[in-house]
Amino acid sequence: MNKTDSKTGKKVGIIRCVDPCENTFINIKDNIVFAGAPYNKKNFFGNTVKAIGIAPNDVLDSILGIHTSDNHNSVFAASYYAISSDNAENEFSVMADVKIIDVSSLKEKYPELAMRVEILSKYAGIEMPVRAKEKQTLKDSFMQYYIDWMEQY
Fold this sequence. Notes:
The chain has 153 residues and is of the alpha+beta class. The protein has 5 helices and 6 strands; from the N terminus they run βαββαββααβα.
């Protein structure tokens, strides 16, 4: 059953990042930099989770299959964030959202990416691939960032 968010019009739920990132995994040490204030967010099941933004970079764009050699933020933008829940499953995910800013420029400047960007932009969240053995390390870094931020402010 496909539900649509009444505010954004995006499909509710997540898609897992596949093709071209089917066998690609995030290198945590080099490519995940938490940025900004932690915040609470409702996940796709209506539960409140902790979230922290991740600084965008070329590697994360490549994993999504939307990397360009120039700055594409006036045409489309990807934002990245990590979420963690305190539920029994103790879930943790690295997520991405893609937003189209200018459809005609997207098709003109990036015809090879236009269809992929359009598809990704229809989802409320894209789960990025993270190696299972690195997930705990990343979650620990997430929690330390969260604690440090809360103590500072």
